What we know:
It holds the Pfam family FlgI. A hairpin with a 2-residue loop joins β8 and β9. The protein has three domains: about 140 residues, no CATH class; about 70 residues, Gyrase A, domain 2 (2-Layer Sandwich); about 110 residues, no CATH class. It starts with a helix and ends with a strand. It is α+β, with helices and mostly antiparallel strands and about 375 residues long. The chain is built from seven helices and 23 strands. The strands form seven sheets. A six-stranded antiparallel beta barrel has the order 3-4-5-10-7-6. The protein has a four-stranded antiparallel sheet with strand order 2-11-13-12. Strands 18-19-20-21 form a four-stranded antiparallel sheet, covered by helices on one side.
Amino acid sequence: MKNRSISSLKKGLLLLVSFSIFSGNCFADRIKDFADVAGQRSNQLVGYGLVVGLDGTGDQTTQTPFTLQSVLQMIGVLGVTIPQGGGQTQLRNTAAVMVTAEFPALARPGQQIDITVSSLGNATSLKGGTLVMTPLKAADGQVYAQGQGNLVIGGARAATGGAATSVNHLNAGRIPGGGLIEKAVPSLLADEFVQLDLHRADFALMQQTAEAIGRRFGLGTALPIDARTLNVRVPVEPLRRTAFMAALQDLDVQMVSGPARVILNSRTGSVVMNQAVRLSPSAVAHGNLTVKVQQTPTISQPLPFSRGQTAVATQDTATLSDSGKENSLIAVPQGASLDQVVKALNMMGATPQDLISILQSLKSAGALRAELEVI
């Protein structure tokens, strides 16, 4: 009974591996996963305001004069007359803050957004404060939203005598739904064409996308501009346009392999590569480590009286040796891929810094057929 269970488990694992292999060779992504509609993006908003109602934890106005100046201007707008000498007023319940928010794509007036409030002066805590109405502007200088509300801060502070302690960060908080949209961004979806922008420039992926759209909606619907930009002809009627865009973004496209790339993290020693990375014949010596990649021509001779032809092929091999260790010669047969070289180096106990230096040397020698990016 136990052997039967083990046999069933092995068959299940084999089936799972087989399914993974076949599914990995024919995977597809939706257009919405690798392309954006031009004009449908978020925008950054920023504003300067005041937080009031603090429990003696606000700015020291003698050290942050802009806070007092802002308070005097605000109450002056509200019709409050400032007596002579009021410029020396000490305020401890008010803090100058910067307010930031993200304007969602296609947001309309009246909708609410979350805002973040951060201290600008020397306030010790914004907990318990209220943000006074603050205009939020975009990069074009126009006001698109107003922010106001009570701050939510997940922290606490306790002080006694000359000692104080705090939990979490108290000089920044959020106001859920504290921003009110006042102005909409003009939509770019009113034309006959909609522009799609791929996340990465790739002619092969662009061709696959255009062909998939053509098969689904008809030839001439997709008009590629370059490796990143694609114009799509859409219906003019709003109802048909909405249905068309929904079907377009859910359309599956056969993905193509990206360019060969190796990512090195010099701080952590991490090495990440894709399956397209290959090595050319080369040899690198780094300390006691030696890496040698070579190609050996092989002749394929057909059987007598057969219709086959003699062919010449190359067999790639990679060898690694460490002169400081015995029996440390490791051969990587059949295909000098970087993945095999890295595994062999790890078996020999090479440090991440050794690996990074070897990869950089291979790239400098032109043997690493991939883009090397150091972060």
